[in-house]
Amino acid sequence: MRDDQLVAEYLRRLRRAAWTMPRARRRELLDEIAAHIAEARAAGTVPLQRVLDDLGDPKDIAATSRVRKRLGLREVAAVILLLLGGFIFAVGWIAGLILLWASPRWRWPDKLLGTLVWPFGYAGVLYGLLAGAFTSAANDSGSFCGYGCTSTSQGGGMPTWLQVLILVAALVPPIAVAIWLVLRARWVPDQTEQPIPEPART
User: Could you say which of 110, 163, 182, 195 has the lowest number of CB atoms within 10 Å?
Assistant: First the structure.
């Protein structure tokens, strides 16, 4: 493999390992490593493979650029309001949404996920379940049927297993997303600069 291919493959692995980092920090890290490799190649005192070996595994480089921190008050409030803020006349959920998008702790896919999974949190879930139950009860009793609705038989509701499945599908995703946001917010870029090892001189 040629030197250019070796460098491209190394940077590709580093980009993949650092995909969870904010875009600006990821770009900065890649530029920093690429510049270091280019400088070592220009000096020509050390073989390229040794330069890459001295840098270490891309996964390790990406890992040293992150630290695990406690959640801030804004992040805690965002997660709680996304789950339960819908009960405060929906204003709480909107406030949680603002905190979610304003926080630098989450990348845009995380923010999009937190926005789209059951809007208004459990208030939206409750409304959906109640609306579904009301519609089902009305149709089963033969009331409130539209034109052409002739079924008035009892016991025609959905089976129990389907009701349980719908309930699980309604209740689990918000909690799963909340856990995901908490875990993602705890891993943030380290603000301290990580020194790049100098190539060994011979």
Answer: 195
